[in-house]
Predict the structure of Glycine betaine/L-proline ABC transporter substrate-binding protein ProX.
Amino acid sequence: MINKKAILKMTTGATAAAMMAMPISANADAHMKPGSGTTIDMARASWDTGWWQAEVYSQLLQELGYDVSRITTLDNPPFYQSVAQGDVDLWVNGWFPLHNSYEDAFSQGAEKIGYVAKGGALQGYLIDKKTAEEHDINYVEDLTKDDIQKLFDANGDGKADLVACPPGWGCETVITHHFEAYGWDDDFNAIKAGYSASMADALGRYENGQPIFFYTWTPNWTVGELPPGEDVVWLQMKETKLPEDQADLADATTVEGLEGCRGEQPCDLGWPANDIRPVANSDFLENNPAAAELLKQVSIPIGDIFDQNAQMNDGADSPEDLKQQASTWIEDNRDQVDKWLKAAREAAQM
């Protein structure tokens, strides 16, 4: 008859002996690098103002021992589909409520976790300050007047040219909704080419004394290059009309004391403020408690993102620049970073 208790005792004893025989340095390394041996398939958004944040998180994950050998650039639709299916593990470029249209992913294997930046991501429409003051333009609706449209018509089609967002971006979906909801098709021409190139063209027109009309978000290099209140102004919306997936946020589109806003405060931008959040595959989070805890812990001040975006716009935008900027930020914030890493390592021991 097999003595199960004896076998269990022998097995337990052997395991204990093996653990006793393991070098102390190996135990220490396993604690410091709980992600050792695990490769993370990380993505980043197609807008380059989010690439630095992705690099910061990548380097922190590597400090935990994870292999993050490459980061794949994806538009919103393929990312949310891929992360739900487990083909991609995570990114840190989720914008909510802007990305609410991808909520199906969160019932199919993905989840939001932690905050890169909470509540500080603004969006809206802007024009140059000179034209706003000369023609008393306070609202986007003011630009639908025929004589005002002509001021912003760079291609001669009779419509005001608006630098919008490329297809696949969450803001492109909302802007398309605005065109339908407000009936802007006869008034505005939405430029949906590459955003950075389109904004560079608008900046060139501005420097030549021509009016400009564009959408932007914060943090973004555009508001560093064209500071609201100095070079450009935020325009308000007389009526808020959001897509169905954001309809419950119609009362959350005002910002009190917004610098550079035309008209009376609070400033109604017509867009709710966003949280920038990591999004990860649920199975990945369950199997990697250290990574999950790190995603919960880390946050980056909006001001620091502005500063990096300004460096990038000044030409420091190569992959090597991004890596250096991320490692410099990590070392400049080493005390806080070490607390985040400590919490992640402890989560792996539970």
User: Anything to note?
Assistant: Residues 1-20 have pLDDT under 50 and may be disordered. The first strand starts at residue 42 and ends at 45.
